[in-house]
Design brief:
TIM Barrel, 53% helix, 10 strands, globular, two-stranded antiparallel sheet, alpha/beta
Amino acid sequence: MTQLEYARIGKITYEMESVADQEGLSPEYIRSGVADGSIVIPHNIKRKGIKPCGIGKGLRTKVNANLGTSPDQLSLENEMKKLEVAIKYGADTVMDLSTGGDLDEIRRCFLDKSPIVVGSVPIYSAAVSAVRNEKSIVEMTDDDIFYAIERHVSDGIDFITVHCGTTLEVLKRLQSQGRVADVVSRGGAFLIEWMIYNEQENPLYEQFDRLLEIAREYDVTLSLGDGLRPGCLADATDRPQIQELIILGELADRARKAGVQTMIEGPGHVPLNEIEANIMLEKKLCNGAPFYVLGPLATDIAPGYDHITSAIGGAIAGKAGADFLCYVTPAEHLCLPTIEDVKMGVIASKIAAHVADLAKGIKSAYERDANMGKARKNLDWDAQAELSIDPELVMEIRSKNPSSEKEACTMCGKFCAMKGVREYLSASRK
């Protein structure tokens, strides 16, 4: 049985217990959320010993880090270093988006080395296989696509992005409305090209029951991908995007009935004033399914700094109810991220997630900030470092900038407000 099916008959699994312990909530709360589809716990039955991760209503906002090779950068060793950095700085999950090198070896290495949840996009493998066999991507068969899915989940992948809502109906809206950036989702583009060339419906939509059978067998969580996510602010919240979202909501209902856990992927590039509306639409149209957003990026003009633009959008999205943030690195729109880019991307998204959790009223988030306030009052620099997002950076800055006043910093020195007021207030209370 799947996590969802266990939850529906009232059974609390080890995974539910573990998530409850991490979140400081009751196991029954987690079970109830899994049962009604507002919480997912991606965990392939073939993977053992990983840290369960709960995503959804009432839980901390989670962060995913996208990793993986490209045809121009094939180093598996480098990707494993990125994995270590992503985990070190707090990623809750990672995804292998590799398109270069031995994809099976890379995927299995991620699964072997990662103690946290791993996701993937199987259609990338199908497309790469087609090209390597001297075929065009549009010449992939239905079986090619589903074979790739089966390989990924049988290896142990915990959740898969599948662009099931990118249909002929959505394509017609794209063609009639027009866009500035057209399609920026790689998986969505593959399927749109395939549908136009073959004049047939998206196999992932047309054979959705076949996909559900595979997912249920391994208790794999479906992440219903947004092939029509906006790639610039001008395309945000348009008809193709919303039509696809309507379809994803319908598919999510079918998945739940089949016992398959499901979350929904969302934009993308969205102006601040439209982010809350996007979250509300997803929650309404998809019956409260967990929402996984890329950023969202709140402006198009900051390449090199898109970890910042996405953190701004991610904080707003999380406050409005988004459950899962996909990190964006400084390399977004420019190149494959470096190890340092991965670090910066994870940290920026973790800050956004924490800010959102404060707004959501997550108890553990408030406690951490309250403890930081106390540490600052006490001029306890070790505690401040420990409570920070990046303890190493805090201690490095302190060590490079010693103050003549032992307790203070070089900003204020002997004029430290905290120290002076603390001493005089203490004396006045005696």
